[in-house]
Write a structure and sequence with these properties.
By secondary structure, the chain is mostly helical. The protein is built from 22 helices and five strands. It has three domains: 124 residues, Rossmann fold; 122 residues, Serine Threonine Protein Phosphatase 5, Tetratricopeptide repeat; 170 residues, Orthogonal Bundle (DNA Cyclobutane Dipyrimidine Photolyase, subunit A, domain 3), CATH 1.10.579.10. Helix 6 packs across helix 12, helix 14 packs across helix 15 and helix 16 packs antiparallel against helix 17. The structure holds flavin-adenine dinucleotide. GO terms for molecular function: deoxyribodipyrimidine photo-lyase activity; DNA binding; FAD binding.
Length: 467
Amino acid sequence: MNLMWLRRDLRIDDNPALIAALQSGPTQALFIATPEQWQQHDMAPIQVDFIERHLNLLAEQLAKYGIPLTVLTVPNYASCTIALKEFCHTQQISQIFANQEVELNECIRDRQILAAGLNLTLYEADVIVPKGTVKTGKGDMFHVFTPFRNAWVKQLQQHSIKTSSHPSEVLTHYQSIRAEKIVLEATKKSSEKWPLVSDIKKHVMPEFLQTKHADYKQYRDFPALKGTSGVSPYLAIGALSSKMLASQVLQHVPFILDNAKADIFCWLNELAWRDFYKHLLFAYPNLIKGITFSEKYSNLNWPNSNEYFIAWCEGRTGYPLVDAAMRQLRQTGWMHNRLRMVVASFLTKHLLVDWRLGEQFFMQHLIDGDFSANNGGWQWAAGTGCDAQPYFRIFNPITQSEKFDPDGSFIRKYLPELSNVPVKYIHLPHSYLAATGQSECYWPAIVEHSQARQIALAFYKQQLGAP
Ligand code: FAD
């Protein structure tokens, strides 16, 4: 008997480990819940709930093909070896198939399992272009995105995308079984507002490709519009395959790889960013230990005001776009990409709080929490990461608000206390509120923008010992 060990690959299609297991013989599936480890990794309760819902979907899909899915619960990764050993013994399993996870603790867990003599084979299912194959002329990992992306495109031009078969293509005889209900014993928060991936595949992605993909570049930065795909939660738990998405884009726009600067390439470019950060973590596994990518930033002595940090977390900075974004995160478990950049810049540059605290807060709340993308995004914002821009890019939260939420509709949605403020004042409402006797209804600005900007520049210069 074979075992398909499901991890962050909660899907039946384009799942290379599952197909390899099925091709090799009768298979059953297993998921190991590790609540203590998840907590240690700051996994958001909304993501745990989302995983539970997708496990139930997957259990039904697998049951159709006669594959039972069992869920074991152990505290942490260290306990996985014994649990797997026992399970393999009682179920007479001789081979374990799984898809690789790139994060350090996950790699250590897999090494321990191999060292214990279990027959585990790993496949790759989390990227479009294989990790470790997009390299500079000298054979190193790229440190900047654009040349990585160009080499990534070349690879896609040379080797067409091959997704794995569907179980229906490899299984000739099977008998359906009944799926048992799965309940994860861990802290959860309802993710019901996010449909199951079956809905995304059937309705959301086809509609996105037909009606929104071509205009993505034009609308993607406006948080009040639904200009982006919204697929990140599904990619983060592996319910969707990024390779499958890329393959659909290539079918939809066959010439798309001809010009990476064309507007139509813009969405695929985001999937390339996702790959970039996964390749980066693969090349530099210690990023997970909180190190700065750029070594010269490793010893910044952040002031880390707890008062500022809490105000940022709670959406009380007095900058409407920042506060509305933080409320979006807390209420929905998701935040628009433009706002992630704005709030991350605000925390690190305006408030001089260590990016690692923001990174952790994001993980604790995001339904799409993914270490590589989150760490990459935070280090990009703090200026400590893989970025062609130096530290002195500081987003102005007021002009960002004027540009990307021009009529204030996003702000009004999450800050109802400002719903009556005229457009002219919505981006920084304090003078209007004072003049109309409503100062009490909103927070004063926590710092003054131009002053905070000067302080940030001085901080970075002094800490880096720059002239
Ligand atoms: P779309 O705009 O439709 O893009 C399609 C897909 O491309 C996304 O689903 C995502 O998988 C990928 N993608 C898009 N932008 C990026 C990017 N900048 N970096 C890496 N991949 C990208 N994304 C996560 O999936 N998990 C995180 O934990 C995460 N944390 C972030 C933290 C910060 C500070 C920043 C600046 C960005 C972060 N991102 C993260 C990236 C990005 O904000 C989200 O992927 C995006 O907002 C998801 O919305 P969407 O699916 O509608 O994206």
